[in-house]
Amino acid sequence: MSLALATLLYEWRRYTAAVVALAFSGLLILAQVGMFTGIVRAITASIDRSRADLMILAPKNESLINSGPDGLPQRIQPLIYLNPQVVEVESLDGDGARWVNTPAPGKKTVTTFVNTFDVDPRPGAVTLPVDYPESVRLALLEPYSVVIDQSAQKTLGTHLGATATLNGKTVHVRALLETYPNVNQPTVYMSRDTMRMLGMGPKNGKTGPLMVRLRDPARAQQVVDQLNAQSKGAYKAWTKADLAKANETALMSEQIIGIFLSFSVFLGFLIGVGITSQTLRGAILASIKEFASLRALGVSMGSLRWIILELSVWVGLAGLLATAVFTWLVYLLGQHGGLPMGFPATWVVGVATLLIVISIASGLLSLGILKKSQPADLLR
Amino acid sequence: MNAPSAPRPPAPPAPPALVARGLSKRFKTGRTHIEVLKSVDFEALHGDVTMVMGPSGSGKSTLVAALSGLLRPDAGSVSALGEDLWRYKAGRIDRFRLDHCGFIFQGFNLFPALTAIQQVEIILKYKGFSRSEARHKAATALTEVGLEMRMNQRPSELSGGEKQRVAIARALAKDPSLLFADEPTSALDGESGQVVIKLLQRAAKSFGAAVVCVTHDPRLESYADRIIHIEDGRILGDRRVVATASSLDQSRHSPVLVGA
Question: Which secondary-structure segment (H or E) carries A47?
Fold first, then answer.
């Protein structure tokens, strides 16, 4: 075992401050990324868990998140059927509506804006998410019935069996979902027919994005390429995975979220380098006589610097481990509180790299203190 | 182990291990300069234990620092093993120390995290020995100082005398031709101190190292071959000690080193 690793393990208390500082720097970023990703995944949950293999979007749309009007001309839908691999094409129609609950006696009325999504309650329909319980599907068959996630009950001031209005028309909460929490904005799910009866859904000859089911899902990429080659700029086909990635990227680059994250990275870097380099300096100073005795015995300054840099990398790795533990705890807490979180691999790798960079930078900053290891000082 | 040398070598014809000429060193304190070494000439021979004695502030530690390549003198030269030490650049002097010099300090300066054998191994690895060679040599060195049962203990589990013996093993494991000791016994009780000085003596007698030992401790005089008295930066006395039969005898045949 190297001197650096042995020292870190033996004197771990000395390095706790640095490890915890690194862990919080990592957590600061990952928790936000986790939350924002969770929001995106909540928004796109109906798509991610649908039976669709492909999605068709308007040609200029780069994602489903804030990328402008996403309507497609209704005539696109039959065009997609021309591909022999395509089994089913349905539009995913979303809208927004004003929700007013029917308050219990003595409670205030809740008026809020909600997202509405339609699904086709026909068994095996492409727009019907695979994790919808049969009871939910059956409930949606009833006209004017709606379904919400159980975590939205409080926000919407409602409960199973209650009545509310959407844009002034009465609807009934007939079932609750458990896996569709959305902290950003509550979502109300309903059947295609109910949506039409409520006066929402496709308008002006435009539909929402199309969901496409294929005979052989393994050929999704191939079909996407074929469709895009024939689209003549009228639409753009996406595999579900590519679209999910594009959605996440789109949210992360939203200006305000970008500012949040950049600031967190900056803050995490400063805090991490500040505390870690001070900890390392203190640790080096505490062992300065031992280092000086190595110098006396002929170990070069360069070799001592390598020891410090190796130590800083080990501290970084320990910080990474602590970040993983802390983030996992926050994730559990979020799950418990109905806050979905997601950790895209690119961000996890990025944060891991950042922490190692922080620790190496701290090691470099604390190298100067090694100059105090003058072996002549050991002779008194 | 090398064959023990003849009963008492009278001034061997071999060239001296260390020759210093006209060493001067001044330190600045406030506005004044203190001249710690005033044109000191010094020689040390292979196989000799040379004690440098003198009161505090007499310049004895500065002398050792200049002799060993740790502190550049303002004037004068040091020829160590025939090499003009202070004409070298810092990196070359480091290399010289790594190849030829051992140091023992008053404080033991052992890394708290490392076991006795790791303390010795680390320096051997820097000297270029492979992992297994380093481990073997470290074990041998620790056995020679009587710590074969304590190899896997950390400094916190060792007594003061044992720690100093680890430091000695660390200094001796690389077979130094020059061994510098600065007050090696002053932090130890009498018995441990004796063990330590006997080890230094053995390094000189059995391995032919030139041992230069700075000390206050008058009890060590009986183990010296030569005693140099330094005061106010000048060498005031330089005498050879006729070794007592008992001290030499003990030094050669003292396998019992426990109890330190």
Answer: helix A45-48
**How high is the ipTM of this complex?**
0.85
Interface contact flag, B70 A376, Cβ < 8 Å: yes
Q: How many CB atoms lie within 10 A of CB A245?
A: 15
pLDDT digits (tens, 9 = 90+) for B41-50: 999 999 999 9
- Domain span holding position B145: 18-253
What residues in A contact B184, CB-CB < 8 Å? none
Contact flag B103-A375 (C-beta cutoff 8 Å): yes
CB contact under 8 A, A296 and B94: no
Q: Does A206 touch chain B (CB under 8 A)?
A: no
Helical spans, DSSP H, in chain B? 60-67, 90-100, 116-127, 131-144, 160-172, 190-207, 245-252
pTM: 0.79
Q: Where in chain A is the domain with CATH 2.40.40?
A: 94-201
Instruction: Say yes or no for a CB contact (<8 Å) between B111 and A287.
Output: yes
Q: Do A298 and B99 touch (CB under 8 A)?
A: yes
Report residue A250 as tokens.
Answer: 């789109």
Interface test with A, best of B27, B85, B103, B177 (most A CBs within 10 A): B103
Q: Assign a CATH topology to domain A94-201.
A: Barwin-like endoglucanases (2.40.40)
Nearest CA in chain B to A9: B113
B65: tokens are 């620092």
- Rounded to whole angstroms, the Cα distance separating A163 from A171 reads 6
B18-29 and A72-73 strand pairing: unpaired
* Residues in B touching A7 (Cβ below 8 Å): 111-113
Which CATH number fits the domain that encloses residue B174? 3.40.50.300
pLDDT in tens, A129-153: 988 999 999 999 999 999 999 888 9
Burial label for A83, CB within 10 Å (0-12, 13-18, 19+), is: middle
Q: Would you give the DSSP letter of residue B221?
A: G
